Automatic annotation (TrEMBL):
Residues covered by the Nucleotidyl transferase domain: 3-268
GO molecular function, one term: mannose-1-phosphate guanylyltransferase (GTP) activity
InterPro entries: Man6P_isomerase-2_C (IPR001538), Mannose-6P_isomerase_type2 (IPR051161), NTP_transferase_dom (IPR005835), Nucleotide-diphossugar_trans (IPR029044), RmlC-like_jellyroll (IPR014710), RmlC_Cupin_sf (IPR011051)
PANTHER family linked to this entry: MANNOSE-1-PHOSPHATE GUANYLYLTRANSFERASE
Pfam families per record: MannoseP_isomer, NTP_transferase
UniProt-listed GO biological process terms: GDP-mannose biosynthetic process; polysaccharide metabolic process
Taxonomy of the source species: Bacteria, Bacillati, Bacillota, Bacilli, Bacillales
Occurrences of domain Mannose-6-phosphate isomerase type II C-terminal (ranges): 340-443
Keywords from the UniProt entry: Isomerase
Protein name: Mannose-6-phosphate isomerase
Length: 458
């Protein structure tokens, strides 16, 4: 069985920690069994390892998330990267073409698709394995997992069975789907044996390959990659699931939760305080997540979430917190914090002078043994001040050792890179007529290549 994890899109429901660069699945706010903080994607990957599904799993994602996934999963996962962000049908189609073309998967092989961020027990992934047998023993187009509801939720979609005689150990024939009903309608659906739709489904590889051929779309990965813009910008639910004629489902009776809002996420946090701050004893059921160095003090405020990041500050009643997306939907500022394959950076300041000169100041952290690419810029110069650790700088073909206290000047057009010998932090001040992340011309990514180049021109 092959697994496709969907890690696309961006979100502001967990603003100010989530943004266009860092979606909710990358927020390190959950506690693992060793009481260390981990993200949703790290938790899911760990569970896939426990159920031995990780080696047959690929992650479908967008360009903006590649480095963060590589960083958080230590480069362990195979990634299928969308050339442009579209929707779940194109993303799944691209991943399926990769499995068909590049892994030698058979047309009768079962492919399971699931989101990268479900908050579930590990037994959930054992149930995912059961989809393979369910598909193989049936003539169905699709097999889904439905979660046994614990209350009549208005937040979830429902899978409605053909009848109400449900035995959770057996295959259930699906009659229809109902999207986010009101509470009264949800109660009626529960009486009919309806289940929450958790967005997990499976199909034979050949089913989707045939569908692509019917739509006159390429089935080979490299060709589909080139023609990706031709794929309809539509969800898999609308393009495939709702048109399938024969759908079955398996019921999962364990714990499942969508941690998509601050009130649901804080319910699963192992601590009520992350970062620098104090919460008074009379602040009941209040959570603080603080990503900056300034202390936050909370006094006599209950049932609230206070989230602080370089992108902004949220102070919200927990029950009202799901409305945050509506309020910040117009915020289009650049992300102030990002994780990369080599470490992280945080924007400290961004100023424009007289409309002709920009200055952007970052604090950059580089993991020991990692490096920035050998690159140059067309519109900005940079000043680096090393504040922690040691490393090696490549500057215009020369190598030099740097340590805390050293300052380097990188002019427009200078070819430069840095490798951290130990964990390294530096302050980078960018200045120029226009400051853009896209103003990078990369020459080499690998440090061995950078060293070889520097030695060759001596």
């Amino acid at each position: 069985m092959k697994i496709i994890l969907l890690s696309g899109g961006s979100g502001k429901r967990l603003w100010p920690l989530s943004n266009d660069a860092r979606s909710k699945q990358f927020l390190k706010v959950l506690e693992n069994k060793n009481h260390n903080l981990e993200s949703m994607v790290q938790r899911v990957w760990s569970q896939l390892k426990q159920t031995r599904l990780n080696n047959s799993t690929v992650i479908a994602t967008s360009k903006s998330q590649v480095e963060m996934i590589q960083s958080q999963l230590n480069g362990e996962a195979d990634l299928i990267v969308e050339p442009t962000r579209r929707d779940t049908f194109p993303a799944i189609a691209l991943a399926v073409s990769y499995l068909y073309t590049n892994t030698g998967a058979r047309l009768d092989e079962v492919v399971g698709v699931l989101p990268v961020d479900p908050y579930v027990e590990t037994s959930f992934f054992d149930r995912v394995k059961d989809l393979e047998m369910a598909i193989q023993k049936s003539e169905s187009d699709l097999a889904l997992i439905g979660v046994k509801p614990t209350y009549p939720s208005e937040k979830y979609g429902y899978i409605v069975p053909e009848d109400d005689s449900i035995d959770s150990s057996q295959v259930i024939k699906v009659s229809r789907f109902t999207e986010k009903p009101n509470e009264n309608r949800a109660r009626e659906l529960l009486k009919q044996g309806a289940m929450w739709n958790c967005g997990v489904f499976a199909f034979r590889l050949g089913y989707l390959i045939n569908l692509l051929e019917e739509k006159h779309l390429p089935i080979h990965y490299e060709e589909l990659l080139k023609q990706y813009a031709r794929l309809p910008k539509i969800s898999f639910d609308y393009e495939v699931v709702e048109k399938a004629k024969n759908i079955i489902a398996l019921q999962y009776n364990g714990y499942w939760k969508d941690l998509g809002t601050w009130n649901t996420l804080t319910e699963e946090m192992g601590t009520n305080k992350i970062g620098n701050g104090i919460i008074s004893e009379d602040s009941i059921n209040t959570h603080l997540i603080n990503e900056i160095d300034i202390p936050v003090t909370i006094l006599g405020v209950s049932n609230a979430v206070i989230a602080v990041s370089p992108d902004g500050i949220l102070v919200s009643d927990k029950e009202k917190s799901p409305k945050i997306k509506e309020l910040v939907s117009t915020f289009n500022d650049r992300p102030m914090y990002e994780e990369r394959r080599w470490g992280w950076y945080r924007v400290l300041d961004h100023v424009k002078y007289n409309g002709t000169q920009e200055v952007l100041t970052k604090k950059i952290g580089i993991k020991a043994g990692s490096n920035l690419s050998y690159q140059y810029h067309l519109a900005r110069k940079e000043t680096w001040t090393v504040v922690k650790g040691e490393g090696v700088v490549a500057l215009n073909g020369s190598l030099q050792v740097v340590k805390a206290g050293d300052v380097l000047q990188v002019e427009i057009g200078d070819k430069h890179a840095i490798k951290a010998t130990t964990e390294l932090e530096m302050i980078e001040v960018q200045s120029g007529t226009e400051i853009l992340e896209e103003d990078i011309v990369r020459i080499f990514m690998d440090w061995d290549e950078i060293e070889d180049y520097c030695y060759s021109i001596k």
